[in-house]
Amino acid sequence: MSLQLADYFAHASNVLLLISYSVRDILWLRWFAVAAAFIVMPYYLAQPDILWPPVMWGTVFAIINLYQIARIYAERRPVVLSADEQKLYDLAFRSLRPREFLSFVMLGEWCTAQPGEVILKQAENTSTVCIATEGSIQFCRDGQVLGQLEPGHIVGLTLALTDQPSLIEARFSERGRYVRWPILTVREFADSRPELRSKLQSLISRNLALNVERLVARQIG
Fold first, then answer.
1. Which site from 34, 68, 140, 212 is most exposed, i.e. has the minimal number of CB atoms within 10 Å?
2. How many beta carbons lie within 10 A of that of residue 35, not counting itself?
């Protein structure tokens, strides 16, 4: 190959690099970078003394970009939720993207509750957070029913965070289904994903406010 022809490969490579800097989608940026790295190779190989260092480093950069491209495609695959996960997502986590939600819910444990099953005991501490997807939850104190929450509401979060004994008991009034997370796991998850922390905090605050509002409304009614 003549040096003059090889120069065209160098120009084409730089044009692709310029295009890569102008695109907003990171996937396209990486594809243009890979193409630029490979297209310029004939220029380096056509020199009287082959330029092995840029060939080597260009190959390394191309491999890194191809790996990141594979990761992006894996992350963009459609998320398929189970029936339980879809119900929980619709009830309480619609502000999260499905993939974000899936990474969080996979940390929890799914349980089936029988009528009367207690998930929060009066005068005892708790280290877990629960959300029911089926079945109503009654709140009682000294055997007296104070109110009831429908599926989709967080139970035990404030107590788990403050490490205080519960003043009430929470139990299923009917057969139900729920997921529970250890509070330490929730904390570690939020700390490791700063981009999700604010979303989870907003979701939790809104959920707690709804819980208080509904309980007060029932007591007044």
1. 212
2. 18
**Angle at which helices 194-220 and 183-192 pack, to 10 degrees?**
140
Domain ranges of the chain: 3-75, 83-220
Q: Residue 41 and residue 58: Cα distance in Å, rounded?
A: 8
The yes-or-no verdict on residue 208 having pLDDT over 70 is no
What does the radius of gyration of the chain's CA atoms come to, in whole angstroms? 28
How far is Cα 147 from Cα 71, in angstroms, rounded to an integer?
Answer: 47
The model's pLDDT over 51-88, given as tens digits with 9 standing for 90+, comes to 999 999 999 999 999 999 999 998 888 888 999 999 99
- 83-220: CATH topology is Jelly Rolls (2.60.120)
d(CA 10, CA 14): 6
